[in-house]
Amino acid sequence: MRTSWRARLSRLLLVGAVVVGLVPAVGSAPALGSTQAQVNSAPPGVVPALQQWTGGVGRLVFSAGSRVVVPAGASAGLKDLANQVASDVAEMTTLHPPVVTGTAAAGDIALRVDAQADFGAAKSQLRPEAYRLTVGTTAEIVGGSDKGAYYGSRSLLQAVVASPDRSSLPVGTAVDYPDYAVRGFMLDVGRRFFTPEYIQAQLRWMGWLKMNTLQIHLNDNGFASHYDNDYAKTPAAFRLASTNPEFAGLAAKDGSYSRADWDRFEATAAKNAVTIIPEIDSPAHALAFIHFKPELGLNNGNSDHLDLSKPATTDFMKSVFAEFTPWFRGPSVHIGIDEYPSSKAAEYRTYVNTLAPYVRSLGKSVNAWGSFTQMSGGGAGYDKDMVINSWNNGWYSPKSAIADGYKVINSNDGLLYVVPFANYYHGQGLDGSYIFNSWAPNIFGGANDLTAQHPNLLGAMPAVWNDQTWATYTELQVHGLIEKSFAALAQKMWSPTAGGTDYAAFLAKVATVGQGPGTGYLPDTITPTRTPGDLAIGRPATASSAETSGLGAVNAVDGFDATRWASAYSDDQWLRVDLGSARTFTSARLNWEGAYGKDYDIQASIDGTTWTTVAQRRGRTSAGVDTLTFPAATGRYVRMKGITRGTAFGYSLYAFEVISDDFAQGRPAIASSTETTNFPAGNAVDGLDATRWASAYSNDQWLQIDLGSARTFTSTRLNWEVAYGKDYDIQTSDDGTTWTTVAQRRGRTSAGVDTLSFPAATGRYVRMKGITRGTAFGYSLYAFEVRA
Fold first, then answer.
1. Are 269 and 323 in contact (CB under 8 A)?
2. For the whole model, what pTM was predicted?
3. Dihedral of the CA atoms 476, 480, 481, 482 (nearest 10)?
């Protein structure tokens, strides 16, 4: 479930006086006889992580009197940012901080721009995106430009979210800057329409993570092989809808963007420090243009390749760029030029060398997909004033492109392509733990890797390609795939080293800061929570093997569906979790990555040596969640024992959950009393009917369980020892103080199991409140279970 921003930041601006960093404040000495306050050595938990942090002492707590302040003479852009910051706070809270011009007072948020400020080790060309955040009696953001100030505001807001009280900032100074100029993402809307709502939310999410480039792939088509090899039947789309009669019928009927839509995209991008690169792809991937003008296609139009031998083809593509380039506010336009037949290399070279300067004549710089090795053996003779997306090392490697004089962007297909739900590239999304632990923008694979921050490497741009036009999935399902690795990509593109090496800790930060204001359209599922009753979460896990060191067994039980364990590429593999003590469970939930198990067993063991099979799966045919339910089983160790893989890879699990349907099992328990130390309260929730809690020998006794968070339940199961309860209540509470009775038992006459069912009740705490004992002893329970 998405955590609301109102809940996260409901106390950002507290009603009351400003309390400013006086624990003590920076530079002040502790009062005589006081305890020395600790320096804020840990940096605020923002994503991506700060490059530099110098901690002070104390905290700055905001109040209802806090303002957003810009200096006199501030630029229009900085004033707009101040209003945006105030608007974001208003979205997150019930308050509306004013924007004022002048000098900041205690408790204010101050914004200014100073291109000459000290931004540490920021490269000169990236200083406009750098910022300093100084927290003392005020929170001051100094940007190298309006963009730098914007990034500082994102860090400020994230740091408030991550603060222990969610209303303050640690005193100290952050100096932050990117290592790479292009921190991008490419979305193929040509093969599958993405709504304007999605694009707008995507732009805001990118800004929140300091990603600065969204490439929108505006035209493409399906694979004719899935449509009887008939290009007339093959879906194709161009997504811009002009009112010019010359282009009537070119825009896709299943979804397109009007000029007004595009203007809104550009405005949102500008507010969130993102540059949009529109891509109009030709001369391959051009079926939408061929459907519009069949005479321009190869093979009499039965192709998705334009016929470059015809001058009319180049003239038409010029007209497309002339029509739509005025829509685009960014400095660059992408012209595609990938995957054309190498047998037509001469015509292709002429086309590239005509189209690239033409687009520049329209006032734009030019980007293109690298293809020159495959087309012509190299880049000799091609227009050199382009930026190359190096997407495949065979088509045109980064080293080849740089040797030919180009600057490059890393879009390596093997590492960075997602084809939703396909069985090639990364059909289940990129592996965030691999990205975090092993990738950086200079990594292209093997001998093609560049040195870090190579002067001709601009950055990186992972991509989503919606190849499978015949498949049924939604834009929000695509978001679910992107979300698994998006924050890790943002971190590695901002700084490959600042994020540290603990991916679980990084994901915890991601879960805390969320996706940012204005992103409610996109489900936020990176949370450290799992199925209620999961006994395996956070427990020690081992496996027969791991594909790489970053894909270890612990990833399957860390509480995140964004990390995974992957085995070696063989059938006989296993994953085992140690529950710590013998526990009772009734189901297992396995969330398979693309490398799923076809046949496997769920096994339990008391000693980790002798195993009992409690459930079997045979003939599974897909990735995703598989839940196996079975009669109650008991064991300290539980494992998935692979028999047959479903793919040529190994076994790969995002999550392995061992689930008890008893919310109380293993939870903290306390009681009004215990007969002796041999019968503590915890014995009633240890999952074993051989141990018990026993109270003192009096009527008014109770046993209380902390479920950890509010849970909804409809029954309790009490297994009474001989010293049973005759009269008792089941009660629930949100705070452990105020109790509500949800069920009563009166006049019970024997030991054994007693199950009470009742209308759904919700509470964090549940207790058995004894009224009358059934014997001369106290109350004694083998088990107290709370069930959904």
1. no
2. 0.80
3. 90
